[in-house]
Amino acid sequence: MTSSGTYTKHRANEELFNQLFRTYYKQTYYSVYRMLRDRGLAQDVVQETFLKAYRHMDTLQQEGRRGAWLKAISKNTAIDLYRKRLRTMDVLDDAVLLRTRSVEDEVQRRADVKVIRNRLMKLAPLYRQTLLLVYEYGMTYEQLASYHKTSVSAVKSRIHRAKLKFRSLILEGVVSC
């Protein structure tokens, strides 16, 4: 491709990005804010979302899927940020706990956490995500229903099924010990 062709493609991507930003900024921000309930973090996630979108503009093929594409990027970015914060908090918690707990208690707690995380990873992705969004992110059933574009009763059923499956996975580990 010639340099003028490259420039034309770059300019088209830039115009498409500006249109995406104008059209979807508020929707993306409010979606992320509902998930995180922190304005500063929501702004960080939205900024990172649009940076990722800009870097990958050439992968967007279908015009009608732009909103869904951005929503997926923002959701994954928010989850990544949350996980990063959890790791940071774990390190801080570990430092505090090591000062206040006995070594035996700390070893047992870490083993328990590891087992729980391993069992959680065995859940189907939809169940795992549902449990994490409700119990880790603190989303309400209504927020989760809005996020997944489903009814509150469907969310309650999904959470119930996820809890049953998770409970069976935990008990499976207890019985095998």
Low-confidence stretches: none
CATH superfamily of the largest domain: RNA polymerase sigma factor, region 2, helix turn helix motif
Radius of gyration: 21 Å
Number of strands: 0
Protein name: RNA polymerase sigma factor
Family: Belongs to the sigma-70 factor family. ECF subfamily.
Pfam families: Sigma70_r2, Sigma70_r4_2
Domain RNA polymerase sigma factor 70 region 4 type: 116-165
Describe, in plain words, how this protein is organized in 3D:
The protein has 177 residues and is mainly α. It folds into 2 domains: 1-100, Rna Polymerase Sigma Factor, Chain: A (Orthogonal Bundle), CATH 1.10.1740.10; 103-177, Winged helix-like DNA-binding domain superfamily/Winged helix DNA-binding domain (Arc Repressor Mutant, subunit A). Helices cover 85% and strands 0% of the residues. It is built from 7 helices and no strands. It has helices at 3-36, 39-55, 66-100, 103-122, 125-136, 141-148, 152-176. α2 packs across α3, α5 crosses α7 (152-176) and α6 (141-148) packs across α7. It is elongated, with a radius of gyration of 21 Å. 14% of the residues are buried.
Give a nutshell description of this structure.
By secondary structure, the chain is mostly helical. It is built from seven helices and no strands. It folds into two domains: 1-100, RNA polymerase sigma factor, region 2, helix turn helix motif (Rna Polymerase Sigma Factor, Chain: A); 103-177, Winged helix-like DNA-binding domain superfamily/Winged helix DNA-binding domain (Arc Repressor Mutant, subunit A, Orthogonal Bundle).
